[in-house]
Specification:
- This protein is an alpha/beta fold and 393 residues long.
- It is built from 15 helices and 19 strands.
- β14 and β15 form a beta hairpin.
């Protein structure tokens, strides 16, 4: 860790140039020849990334940032705060500490935090930053977390792990065994050190694949930020053997949309019907959960089709997703399309439909944008239909 980057003149330069065009800035002469110009440029670029994602870091003075990629890959403050609301206790050990955003929020819920990071420089950076962020209940271990667990007699209330995919698994459907650390292989060892484990994974992990590799799973949390799934959390407890609950959260500016259901619990069956006055599209977290029948049952609204994952009702309800008022439902054929949508402007979405959005736009010359929202889908009788709607805010 190059602490010369904390020199007042350099920090002022970084602050003044936050948001600047790095390509143009890189062509300038380094005003601080005693410090690597690339290092200064990286601080500017990473701080720019942190403005929206990590406002607490951005607002603090004398913060050192790792690479831009590390900032991009770390949890946002909003998802970290939500995560910390799920668990609490005396002690937590984070086996894959990274830039420390999760631990910053865990430190508000636990008496003591242990931050493990195999990259010694990154560990030192987080330690330095936590002093500036006034986090006083966190200790740092630079090195392999396995060695620390082997050497300590302490038992922790929680173990937190954010395993990273191995380089050779890029582009593939991955399993947890493809990650470092290999959690499925180490699970029994981890249970010697804690009865409760929280595992964070990338959103593209298939939930059923994760369940096939893990045991004692009590809850699966699916966290989305502004309708984009950011992470999955597998909450496991050593002695647990009951049903698994899927809990979804979509963090929005004004509120958090939540929905949950018990996996495999069939209380009743979903209902189906033709489009009514209102249309509902579940948020991304619910879509990832696969709880499509459960939505119909929980909210007492009808599905348009088994595979369409759109819902309808005569009365407007509070719903975790987008809400629309149906202006018109038309059959998908040449005459109807020419009369209603050809050469017009509309937002186009397809659900359980044989054509892509791109093909539909090209075929009917529909411009993007505007106040109309058109859902190309399939109804309960397997007919291809188009729902022309306006959005309800």
């Amino acid at each position: 860790m190059n602490i010369s980057i904390l020199h007042q003149d350099i920090q002022e330069f970084i602050t003044q140039n936050t948001g600047a065009d790095i390509t143009k800035l890189a062509l300038q002469k380094n005003p601080f020849p005693e410090v690597d110009w690339i290092l200064i440029l990286n601080q500017i670029e990473a701080r720019t990334k942190a403005k929206e994602k990590l406002p607490s870091w951005f607002a603090a003075e004398n913060i050192i940032y790792p690479s831009k990629i590390s900032v991009e890959q770390t949890s946002s403050e909003k998802t970290a705060a939500y995560k910390a609301s799920l668990i609490s206790g005396e002690s937590l050990i984070d086996l894959t500490g990274g830039f420390g955003v999760d631990d910053y929020y865990f430190s508000k819920k636990f008496k003591s935090i242990t931050h493990c990071e195999i990259n010694e420089e990154l560990s030192a950076i987080v330690s330095q930053n936590f002093k500036k962020l006034q986090v006083e209940n966190c200790t740092f271990h630079a090195g392999d977390s396995i060695h620390l667990l082997e050497e300590t007699n302490q038992k922790f209330d929680w173990i937190y792990i954010d395993p990273s995919r191995r380089n050779d698994s890029k582009g593939k459907v991955f399993m947890l065994k493809d990650c470092l650390p290999n959690v499925p292989e180490l699970l029994d060892f981890y249970f010697e050190k804690s009865d409760s484990i929280l595992i964070k994974t990338a959103p593209l992990l298939d939930i059923s694949a994760g369940l096939s590799e893990l045991k004692n799973v009590k809850n699966i949390h699916i966290i989305a930020l502004e309708n984009e799934v950011k992470e999955l959390l597998f909450e496991i407890h050593k002695s647990y053997s009951g049903r698994i609950t899927l809990k979804t959260a979509n963090i929005l500016k004004e509120k958090i949309e939540t929905f949950e259901f018990v996996l495999g619990e069939e209380i009743s069956f979903p209902s189906f019907d033709f489009p009514k006055k209102y249309l509902y599209e579940p948020n991304a977290a619910i879509m990832k959960s696969g709880g499509f029948d459960e939505v119909s049952i929980a909210f007492k609204i009808d599905k348009l089709h088994k595979h369409s994952h759109l819902y309808t009702s005569d009365e407007l309800i509070d719903f975790p997703g987008r809400k629309f008022e149906v202006q018109k439902a038309i059959s998908y054929n040449k005459n109807e399309m020419k009369n209603e949508l050809a050469n017009k402007q509309a937002n186009v979405t397809t659900r359980n439909f044989q054509e892509t959005v791109e093909n539909i736009r090209k075929k009917w010359k529909i411009k993007s944008g505007g106040n109309l929202y058109c859902f190309f889908t399939t109804d309960v009788k397997d007919n291809k239909i188009v729902l022309i709607c306006t959005k309800i805010n």
